[in-house]
Write a structure and sequence with these properties.
With 492 residues, the protein is of the alpha/beta class. Helices cover 44% and strands 12% of the residues. The chain contains 15 helices and eleven strands. Helix 8 links the parallel strand 2 and strand 3. The chain is globular, with a radius of gyration of 25 Å. The N and C termini lie far apart (82 Å). The structure holds pyridoxal-5'-phosphate (PLP).
Length: 492
C-alpha cells in the first residue's frame, strides 16, 4: 500500500496538491547548498547593531502572496547578516549546537510529516523509534540497563522534570495535591548551570532552598562539603531532596566526583540527578565512561545531542531509573486523550511538561545511521585531538596560560602580560582581547569567570572543523597578544 503511494497515478495527484513544493524546493536546496559552501566566508558572530534587522522589515504583514524569488533575496540580504553562525568551523563560543547534513535531512522530513507526537496513538512510529533510540544510546553510553529514557526539548526542561519528580518522591506525591513545603533542599556546586536555580524556582521549592556547595581547585564539587551541608540541614529540620551533579560544568567542564556523591545520596536518601548536558556526548567513547563512574546509583541523567552529537537543536535525552515515579508525577488523563493502548505503549506526554511533542527521534536515527557510530566516534576523537593541539600551544606560549586543566575538546585560558599586573588589569586586557578577536568575524570565543579571573573558553565541537581552523585562532591570538604588548609599550 505504501509503495502504491509512489506509483505514477498516485504521484500525479500528490504533485497537484503540493505543486508549489516541487516548484520551489530546488531553489531552497540551492540556497542551503550555497550557504554551506560559503559559510566560512561569513562573519562567525553577527556584527549587526540592535534594530538593524527589525528596521529593514515592513511594518505590516503582506496581504497577498509574494514571489519566492523576493522572499529568498530578503533572506540573503536582511536575515543572513543577523545570523551568528553556529555551524561555522570557527565557532568556539559557549558550547556548540552542532548539526550535520544527516540531521538537516531528517528535519526536512520531520517538517513534511508534520506529526504531533504527544501519545503513541498520534504516531506509533515516532513513539517506538524514540524508545529504540533511547535503547541504542543507553547501550552505547554505558548507562545502567534499567534506565528508561525519552527526548525532551532542552536540558533545562529535563532538569526541571528531575527536580519536580524528586519533590514528589520525597513528599510522597503530596506536593502535587496540596502545594510545596518550604523546607525541601536541593544541592549543586557553585559552578552548576543556572537551569538548576531556575528549576528549583519553577518547582516552587524556592531558590533559598538551593544550596551551592564549594569546589576544589579544578572546580569540582567537594563531597565533604556536600555531606556537611546535608547534615546541617537535617539538624535544622530541612529535608534533603535532590543533588544535581555536573558531569561537565558550563564554565570550565569540571566533572563532579559522581561516585563519592552517589554514596552520600544513598546514605541520606536523596534524589541524584546527573547533568551531563554538554560532556555526555563523550560517553559514546568508551575511554570517557569513567566520567560517570557511580551512575548505577543515580536517579536521573540528562545530556544534549543538540550540543556535540551532530543533531541540530533541539534534542535532549533524559533517562530515569524508576519511570513509575516520573509517570506518577506528570501523568494526566483527560477523557479526550483516553486510548485503548494505554499501559501497553509509551505515551510520552506523561514523561515531561509539554503535551505536544515534535518527532525528534528521526534526526537521532538519521545521524546514527548516516554517520555510523564509528563516524561519530572518530569526529569526537578528532575534536579532542585538536583541543590537545590547541592546549599545547597555550601552555608553550609566553603570552597565555591554562586556568584549569584542558579536558575533552575544551580549554580554559587567559592572556598574561609580560609585566606583573593586578588581576583587575589582566582581566581588562583579556576582555579587550576577546572583544577584538570576535570583532574580526573570523572566530568566535566566549568567556567566563574562574574565581576572580576573567578567562577565555575555547570549545572545538563544530562538525566540520579542521586543524587549519585551529591554526587560524592561534594566529589571531598571537597577533592580538603582540598588539596589546605594543600598545602597552607606547603608552609608557
Ligand atoms: C548547556 C547546558 C545546560 C542547558 O542546556 P539547554 O538544553 O539549553 O537547556 C544545562 N546544563 C549544562 C551543564 C549545560 O552545559
Amino acid at each position: 500500500m505504501y509503495l502504491l503511494l509512489f506509483t505514477e497515478s498516485f504521484k500525479n495527484t500528490f504533485m497537484l496538491q503540493r505543486k508549489e513544493f516541487t516548484k520551489h524546493a530546488p531553489e531552497i536546496i540551492n540556497w542551503i547548498d550555497t550557504f554551506f559552501k560559503n559559510i566560512e566566508n561569513l562573519p562567525v558572530k553577527s556584527l549587526v547593531k540592535p534594530k538593524d534587522i527589525y528596521d529593514q522589515l515592513p511594518t505590516k504583514a503582506p496581504q497577498h502572496a509574494e514571489d519566492w524569488e523576493q522572499i529568498l533575496d530578503d533572506l540573503t540580504n536582511i536575515i543572513l547578516p543577523g545570523i551568528t553562525h553556529w555551524q561555522h568551523p570557527n565557532f568556539h563560543a559557549y558550547f556548540p549546537a552542532n548539526s550535520s547534513v544527516e540531521s538537516v535531512y531528517a528535519e526536512f522530513i520531520t517538517a513534511a510529516l508534520g506529526a504531533q507526537c504527544m501519545i503513541w496513538d498520534t504516531s506509533p512510529a515516532a513513539a517506538e523509534l524514540e524508545e529504540k533510540m533511547m535503547d541504542w544510546l543507553k547501550d552505547l553510553m554505558g548507562l545502567p540497563s534499567e534506565f528508561e529514557g525519552c527526548i525532551q526539548d532542552t536540558a533545562s526542561t529535563a532538569t526541571l522534570v528531575a527536580i519536580i519528580t524528586a519533590r514528589e518522591w520525597k513528599t510522597n506525591f503530596q506536593s502535587n495535591e496540596y502545594g510545596v513545603p518550604n523546607n525541601l533542599r536541593t544541592y549543586c556546586s557553585s559552578q552548576t548551570h543556572s537551569s538548576i536555580e531556575k528549576g528549583v524556582k519553577i518547582a516552587g521549592m524556592g531558590s533559598r532552598n538551593l544550596i551551592k556547595i564549594g569546589v576544589d581547585d579544578q572546580m569540582r564539587m567537594r563531597p565533604d562539603l556536600l555531606e556537611k551541608a546535608i547534615l546541617e540541614d537535617i539538624e535544622n529540620n530541612k529535608i534533603p531532596t535532590c543533588v544535581v551533579v555536573a558531569t561537565g560544568t558550563t564554565g570550565t567542564v569540571a566533572i563532579d566526583p559522581l561516585k563519592d556523591i552517589a554514596a552520600i545520596c544513598k546514605k541520606y536518601n536523596v534524589w541524584l540527578h546527573v547533568d551531563a548536558a554538554f560532556a555526555g556526548t563523550a560517553l559514546l567513547l568508551p575511554e570517557y565512561q569513567w566520567m560517570i563512574d557511580g551512575i548505577e546509583d543515580a536517579d536521573s541523567f540528562v545530556f544534549n545531542p543538540h550540543k556535540w552529537m551532530f543533531t541540530n537543536f533541539d534534542c535532549t535525552v533524559y533517562f530515569v531509573k524508576n519511570v513509575d515515579l516520573l509517570l506518577r508525577t506528570f501523568e494526566i488523563l483527560p477523557e479526550y486523550l483516553k486510548t485503548k493502548t494505554r499501559g501497553a505503549v509509551n505515551d510520552y506526554r506523561d514523561w515531561g511538561i509539554p503535551l505536544g511533542r515534535r518527532f525528534r527521534a528521526l534526526k537521532l536515527w538519521f545521524v546514527m545511521r548516516g554517520m555510523g557510530i564509528n563516524g561519530i566516534q572518530s569526529k569526537l576523537r578528532k575534536h579532542i585531538q585538536l583541543n590537545d593541539y590547541f592546549a599545547d600551544f597555550i601552555q608553550q606560549s609566553d603570552h597565555f596560560e591554562w586556568v584549569t586543566d584542558p579536558i575533552l575538546n575544551f580549554t580554559c585560558f587567559r592572556y598574561i602580560p609580560s609585566r606583573k599586573e593586578s588581576t583587575k588589569t589582566i582581566n581588562l586586557l583579556n576582555k579587550s582581547l576577546l572583544s577584538q578577536l570576535n570583532q574580526t568575524g573570523k572566530a568566535f570565543l566566549s568567556h567566563t569567570l574562574v574565581d576572580d579571573k576573567y578567562v577565555l573558553r575555547m570549545v572545538i565541537g563544530q562538525t566540520y572543523v579542521e586543524q587549519k581552523h585551529i591554526d587560524l585562532v592561534i594566529q589571531l591570538l598571537k597577533e592580538l597578544a603582540l598588539k596589546i604588548e605594543n600598545d602597552y609599550a607606547s603608552n609608557k
